[in-house]
Design goal:
Keywords: DNA-binding. It comes from Sporomusa silvacetica DSM 10669. Pfam families: TetR_N. This is HTH tetR-type domain-containing protein. This protein is mostly helical and 188 residues long. It is built from nine helices and no strands. Helix content is 80%, strand content 0%. It is elongated, with a radius of gyration of 19 Å.
């Protein structure tokens, strides 16, 4: 089994059971190997967790770059709304988002700085990709430099709905807050 496959299995376990509840023996069993074989790939549970996080952050940054290059011609409004919908879809179909958000906000104490730094790397990439879209918009009520932060705050709030509530709650909150958010950004 490849290291990438082991990382995917481990990601599911960390997401489902948290750091403390995840057992290397269960990951090995799910991978069809003995626990000792995991040590060929990873030094210990912390090393495995760090490798999962590194992979998740890289994949999420790759997704962002792909999303913005694919949607380069969309308006700011369409880009932001589509990105929210894509993140909901990714959360429901891909463990990366749940892992990234949950472990960033509830990391093991000993690794808190590491997770914060990596999430900051993700946010910096997102802000850098959003910035040109906000600069293109001629009718902004806010400083374009504040636009990416305002959007990330909305994204974080909506993800709380997915993580701690339901997709239906996400949809309802998006329906309510999108109109307020967008009308707060644009001059009438």
């Amino acid at each position: 089994m490849s290291e990438h496959d082991l990382i995917k299995i481990a990601s599911k376990h960390f997401l489902q059971f948290g750091y403390d509840g995840t057992k290397l023996s269960h990951i090995a069993q799910a991978a069809g190997m003995k626990k000792q074989s995991l040590y060929f790939h990873f030094k210990n549970k912390d090393d495995l967790l760090l490798q999962v996080n590194k992979t998740v952050i890289e994949e999420e940054i790759d997704f962002l770059q792909f999303f913005f290059s694919k949607n380069i011609d969309l308006s700011l409004k369409d880009t932001l709304y589509l990105l929210l919908l894509d993140y909901k879809r990714r959360y429901l179909t891909n463990d990366n988002n749940g892992f990234m958000f949950l472990l960033t906000f509830i990391p093991p104490d000993s690794l808190q700085n590491y997770f914060s730094q990596n999430y900051h790397l993700f946010l910096t990439n997102l802000k850098n990709l959003l910035q040109p879209k906000f600069l293109e918009e001629k009718n902004l009520r806010i400083n374009p430099d504040d636009g990416p932060t305002s959007f990330i705050t909305l994204l974080d709030g909506l993800f709380t709905q997915l993580i701690f509530e339901t997709p239906k709650d996400f949809d309802n909150s998006l329906r309510i807050f999108w109109d307020i958010y967008w009308n707060g950004l644009i001059k009438k």
